[in-house]
């Protein structure tokens, strides 16, 4: 059984899915603006919701830092840019794939 964790590297706009210490998959992401930066640190996924509505695209995964999450987007051109209020944006097909692989309580590291 895989032991997945996530590393989000803000410097290269990438989310990496790791199984133990091996990168299994990489996904491009959009991150927080300069004034609403994505918070660096160690978190866990605390909830998951399909079709959350609004600007959150096809899926939402809430982080242990309140009001922050990994989610899809209805604006795919925002991926690879500093555009969010601090959340991690992914293409809808990518967030659906990721959500199908990582369970609640998965570790998420956000780094510069």
From TrEMBL:
Coiled coil: none annotated. SUPFAM superfamilies: L,D-transpeptidase catalytic domain-like. Pathway: Cell wall biogenesis; peptidoglycan biosynthesis. InterPro entries: LD-transpeptidase, LD_TPept_cat_dom, Transpep_catalytic_dom. It comes from the Bacteria. Keywords: Cell shape, Cell wall biogenesis/degradation, Glycosyltransferase, Hydrolase, Peptidoglycan synthesis, Transferase. GO terms for cellular component: extracellular region. The active site is at residues 71, 87. Residues 4-111 form the L,D-TPase catalytic domain. GO terms for molecular function: glycosyltransferase activity; peptidoglycan L,D-transpeptidase activity. Belongs to the YkuD family. This is L,D-transpeptidase family protein. It comes from Paenibacillus silvestris.
């Amino acid at each position: 059984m895989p032991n997945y964790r996530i590393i989000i590297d803000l410097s290269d706009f990438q989310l990496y899915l790791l199984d133990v210490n091996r990168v299994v998959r990489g996904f491009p992401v959009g991150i927080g603006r300069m004034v609403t930066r994505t918070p660096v640190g160690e978190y866990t996924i605390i909830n998951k919701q399909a079709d959350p509505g609004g600007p959150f695209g096809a899926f939402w995964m809430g982080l242990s830092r309140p009001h922050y999450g990994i989610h899809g987007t209805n604006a795919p051109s925002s991926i690879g840019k500093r555009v969010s209020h601090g959340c991690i944006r992914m293409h809808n097909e990518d967030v659906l794939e990721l959500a199908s692989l990582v369970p609640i309580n998965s570790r998420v590291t956000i780094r510069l």
